Amino acid sequence: MKKTILILALIPVAFIAFSCSKDDGDTTKPVITLSAPAHDQGLKIGDPAGVLLDMDLSDDVMLGSYKLEVHSNADHHHHSKSAGTVDFSFHKEFDISGNKSIHISHRDIVIPEGVSEGEYHLMVYCTDAAGNEAQLARDIILRN
Amino acid sequence: MQIRHLSICIAAVCLASSLGAQEKTVNDTLQHSVVSDSYRQSQLKRNATASEILEKDFLDRHLSGNIVQTLENIPGVQSMDIGSSFSKPMIRGQGFSRIAVTENGIKQEGQQWGADHGLEIDSYNISSIEVVKGPASLLYGSDAMGGVIEIHKPEFPSAKGIYGEAVLTGKSVNGSLGASLMLGYASDKWMVQARYTELHFGDLHIPTDTVVYMSVLVPLEGRKMKNTAGFERDESIYASYRNGRYKATISFSNAYQKSGFFPGAHGIPDASRLNDDGSSYNIELPYSWVDHIKISSGHQYTWDNNILTGDFGYQFNHREEWSAFHTHYPSQEIPSKDPDKELSFILHTGSGTLRLRHFHSAVLEESIGVSAQLQWNSVGGYSFLLPKYRRQTAGAFWLGTWKPNPRLSVTGGLRYDWGNIDIKEHTDPNLMEYLVRQGYSTEEAGKYSLVSATANRHFGDFSGSAGLVWNPVGKHLFKLNIGRSFHLPGANELSINGVHHGTFRHEQGDPDLDSERGWQLDALADMKWGRVELELSPFFSWYGNYIFLDPTGKWSPLPHSGQIYRYTGTAARFWGGEVELHVSIWKHLKYNFSGDYVNTYNETTHTALSFSPPPTMRNILAWEGERWGAEAELQSIATQKRIAHNEDITPGANLLHLGGHISFPRIGTEVSLSIRNLLNTKYYNHLSFYRKVEIPEPGRNFSITFRKTIK
Questions:
Q1: Which CATH architecture fits A26-143?
Q2: For residue B3, what is the enclosing H or E element?
């Protein structure tokens, strides 16, 4: 009887023994270091040269892609739009697969004439090859 | 499913009479309103899967927030919290619709909502609750793949006449005040009881000054989470009738909950929405409310060596979420009707079970049964969560129990389930307009504003189990069970295409998903030597097709969302177990240790599955006297490093809790006191809805409960 009880008590050990598995999947997110634009930086509406975006992206295994997005941060209820202007919005995706780290510097974000002044968010999203995702939001101000 | 317990009692009647035993003992069993240790033992023995029962005394003294948080005292059970008042249960790493919660024999609906909603059950209205920590598809159908939480039906009180209780609870962490009044009347054949509960709570205090939402630092004025106040109002009536061979119950309940959402984690982050509004109890936009009505009736008839039981129920869930349209679509024209109604969801569920138990002899019994459920809904609001669908399921099962001697019981069973889900297509015109404004082509905008695709799927699958319960010398108890179970995919997993603000992700369903299927093996050893009791319960499960949200690496064009996640099936493994140790040190002084561990593994991503509970230990020193008791608990939560993609490692914590109670039997009053998180430790719950936005768990919390029993 005692032996049987001992055997039954050893069942947990057996459970653990046959169910060990290695976690070799990548769960580390990529890192976004955004240097420009700065926090609350004023950006000129209608500047044909575009907005300087300067950042470093890196991952411990392999990067995937990144996406830029600009949207209005003004609460509509308190937001007085000048006649004939619309909120500026921007979105663009970039493939950076094959890199472990990369320095990004471009002026792809161009703010056309006629958009509303005010507070906006610049969002940077970045994924690695495994699908881990990092996000960064920056407050920017659009001025005429 | 309490019917099953009653069935057992009735079975005892039959067997006892056939064996010529006294009728009186049987009546005693039936009328047993105080759950005793031997009763508990006999309940635990009837199930080959690891299970645990919490009785009224324990529940009364440990009602810290809601019933799910109390269940966390059972190793292997976790609570997925949404602030301090609402929680969802998780058993051994499985939650949501993989866990069935039953009340009055009817499976509770409302788990479809996702991570940010609790159970719609009156926590005060529970006299005894049982947790089955393993697959229970055999008896409860597809939604019990991960386990069952069964709220037992109220039993006949031991004395005739008027009875009742009044409870008053106060809690400091969110300034909550709750009251519950129950009154009942019992005669030989009848009992009727009614309960009214009302609970109000203010904004939640947390031990931090800032939280992070979408990488924006959000300040918290006065360490309070603005607009997390709410209230709950529950009413219920329960009646039971017994006359010779026939027994019936009927119940009606209504649970209404309304609570605000923390605006710092809703829509576009904006610090201005978080300015202190000077009040802790107001509920402003965004908020949600839910109304849950449940009507159920159970019947049982006994003749010769047979027991026929039937449970029937109807449930009505109505949920609405309200938030300013412009927090989601800043520059669009507001809808003309109910501009701030973000979501509305009405769900109807009808269900029924019939079961016939036949006793061939004292050693052999068989049961056959059928069950069916029909569910349909309607949706509204400017946003989208779940599609309009119609779901029908039906199952038939056979169960056998063989007891060759009083020390051994062997059980086995087989079940087949059919399921059909018919999902309607749904297009979101606001999203369409948004995408066109963003410069997407009409074709692409059309593709993404089709937030739910048509799907009509039929499923059919077997589940089964075989197990044994062995009760050798002394008080030792051993169980071994192997089971196969399956789970139907949900409407969202099949058809959704949009941002789920409960998960902050763009989720895409797959209309071709197969049902989830798995094998589970679990064991239990409960050993007693003198003053020491040791319980070990290991488990191992393997799933050939376990549905998870897989990051696709493809960017979503939807507002405030990163990449698209798709519901995908994978092979997955779960293993782990629980340890409990109880030592009677001296007189009423007791030491209890409990620990649990769950290891989840996704064989596709080679990572853990999301929401893997961290290992937890509890060391409790308790004095359990006749009139009073006190306890100190050290809860140690390990760091959860095993995470899924896009989860964060959650650091561990050591928490100190104190509790005590004193009773005044002459005036039928009991007072319970507790202090949770005495040291005001800032820590995170890996399973919390708020974890993703780095909102820590509540700080130090004093709570007090007065309970007066009326006889």
A1: Sandwich (2.60)
A2: helix B2-18
